[in-house]
Specification:
The protein is 42% helix and 17% strand. The chain has helices at residues 8-18, 23-35, 45-57, 72-80, 97-106, 120-129, 146-156, 182-195; strands at 62-66, 86-91, 113-117, 136-139, 162-166, 200-205, 211-216. The chain has a 7-stranded mixed β-sheet with strand order 3-2-1-4-5-7-6, sandwiched between helices. It is globular, with a radius of gyration of 17 Å.
């Protein structure tokens, strides 16, 4: 059993004492919650702070994001990257691009971000063909394609590079013995694969909706 049970009050304490959320991030998060019914797709503030810390600790200069939504996680990354850093942000739709663009400009980091609206698989395959690589890849998109994204990401990070995968719990549905939803089965297969994958060092973290870190050996 865990030593600490995270109550609502303790979680709020974590946000109050352990997260420095830029005003542009606060505004974007609040706008997303007000305007969109699926605002739960945002990563949480403590996840964003964790992502930013990883970027700084690893001295990340190139970051690939698979799944942009309203640009909240990309903004966390852009604020953490050095001035010379580069983000490539992939999304299949530009439905929420206005929110993302506005926030990126407000934080004065728009110049760091290349925003590509196209199927992520095709874009990633194109990067591989061109010999491109990224220090850190964050996967938070179509869950049914997570296995494909993971394999492509392994080809796009160098030795020591990091793959970060969100929603590996999928609100607890990965515990289902006979999952009926195809994307849940995919997540279960991915979690099993990564657990025994000799190509990476791993850590699955139980915060947010579950995050897996896979460091390429």
């Amino acid at each position: 059993m865990p030593k600490t049970i995270i109550t609502d009050e303790l979680y709020q304490y974590c946000l109050d004492k352990g997260v420095r959320e830029h005003p542009a991030l606060v505004s974007l998060r609040q706008q997303t919650k007000v305007q969109l019914e699926n605002s739960q797709m945002l990563i949480s503030p403590e996840q964003g702070a964790f992502l930013a810390m990883l970027i700084r600790l690893m001295n990340v200069n190139s970051y690939l994001e698979v799944g942009v939504f309203t640009g909240y996680s990309a903004l966390w990354a852009a604020l953490a990257l050095p001035e010379t850093g580069k983000i490539v942000a992939l999304d299949i739709s530009d439905e929420h691009s206005a929110l993302a663009e506005s926030a990126w400009h407000a934080a004065k980091v728009r110049h760091k971000i290349e925003y590509i609206v196209a199927p992520a698989k095709e874009s990633m395959q194109s990067f591989i063909a061109k010999g491109e690589s990224f220090d850190l890849i964050f996967i938070d998109a179509n869950k049914s394609q997570y296995l494909e994204y993971y394999e492509l990401a392994l080809q796009l990070v160098p030795s020591g590079g990091l793959i970060m995968i969100d929603n590996v719990f999928m609100y607890g549905q990965v515990l289902e013995d006979n999952a009926k939803k195809a994307y849940i089965k995919t997540l279960q297969k991915l979690n099993d694969l990564i657990k025994d994958d000799p190509r990476v060092d791993i850590s699955m973290l139980p915060f947010g909706d579950g995050i897996t870190l896979a460091r390429k050996k």
